[in-house]
């Protein structure tokens, strides 16, 4: 139909490590972190509510470990009954392998997000989709100031560039199979940011020096990284700092619950959190 938005498929990462009990899941008495309730619904339900309402989402592929799929299946079935096209993809121990499997070799645009991204908004999703469709790959970010304007403890990890400090948001995009080239280095597994050799292979020593010394803006940094892989990679910068706050731990759960509660008209007080807490 003329004027319809260009479609994307969403890869929704919901797996957890086999044999590792997530602290939030244990506290809530559920088997999976994505089933942890927040503001009356499981984490994954809040994300699905946004996704199934977007006309540009043609399908959702939920990545889960095989032995956890039965527990999450009833929730997915509820959305299938509402007309959503949802497939379940077996996860791999390596997140990049999981994403590759979820693409099924199809050469088209994919938005990647997580089941704990409960503060995702329709506006944020559309901005990410539009950015992706004009490039080979995108990563969503917001500034330190935007996060702090929401809650000082909403995010603690920032990447400092020449123009600003940025926090990552769990909303990424790859536009076709060629875009997976940028992810190949991550296939080794392990802690990427703590492995200097892997970082150098991925970004190049000179690029790392430029970023470490804050000599490039985030846009220029992405351009340099894209050139290394022969891709047009772009940052998608959100003005809304809430989009960098996902449910990683008890601290961010409390903050996300307060923000989500505000959106839903619940009377949840703003949390006071000790900066020294985990």
UniProtKB/TrEMBL annotation:
The keyword Flavoprotein does not apply. It comes from the Bacteria. InterPro entries: MobA-like_NTP_Trfase (IPR025877), Nucleotide-diphossugar_trans (IPR029044). One of its GO terms (molecular function) is nucleotidyltransferase activity. Keywords: Magnesium. Residues 25-134 form the MobA-like NTP transferase domain. This is MobA-like NTP transferase domain-containing protein. It comes from Aurantiacibacter gangjinensis.
């Amino acid at each position: 139909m003329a004027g319809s938005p260009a479609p994307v498929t969403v890869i929704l990462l919901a797996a957890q490590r086999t044999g590792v009990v997530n602290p939030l899941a244990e506290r809530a008495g559920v088997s999976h972190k994505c089933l942890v309730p927040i503001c009356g619904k499981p984490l994954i339900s809040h994300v699905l509510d946004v996704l199934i309402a977007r006309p540009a989402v043609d399908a959702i592929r939920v990545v889960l470990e095989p032995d956890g799929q039965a527990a999450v299946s009833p929730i997915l079935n509820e959305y299938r009954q509402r007309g959503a096209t949802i497939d379940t993809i077996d996860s791999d121990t390596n997140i990049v392998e999981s994403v590759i499997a979820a693409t099924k070799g199809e050469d088209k645009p994919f938005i990647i997000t997580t089941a704990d991204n409960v503060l995702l908004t329709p506006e944020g999703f559309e901005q990410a989709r539009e950015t992706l469709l004009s490039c080979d790959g995108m990563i969503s970010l917001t500034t330190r100031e935007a996060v702090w304007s929401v809650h000082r403890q909403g995010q603690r990890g920032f990447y400092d560039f020449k123009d600003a400090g940025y926090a990552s948001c769990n909303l990424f995009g790859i536009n076709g199979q060629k875009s997976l080239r940028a992810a190949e280095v991550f296939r080794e597994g392990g802690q990427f940011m703590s492995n200097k050799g892997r970082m150098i292979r991925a970004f190049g020593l000179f690029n790392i020096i430029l970023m470490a010394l804050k000599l490039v803006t985030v846009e220029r940094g992405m351009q340099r990284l894209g050139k290394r892989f022969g891709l047009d990679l772009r940052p998608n910068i959100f003005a809304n700092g809430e989009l960098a706050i996902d449910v990683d731990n008890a601290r961010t759960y409390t903050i996300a619950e307060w923000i989500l509660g505000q959106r839903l008209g619940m009377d949840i007080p703003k949390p006071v959190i000790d900066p020294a807490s985990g």
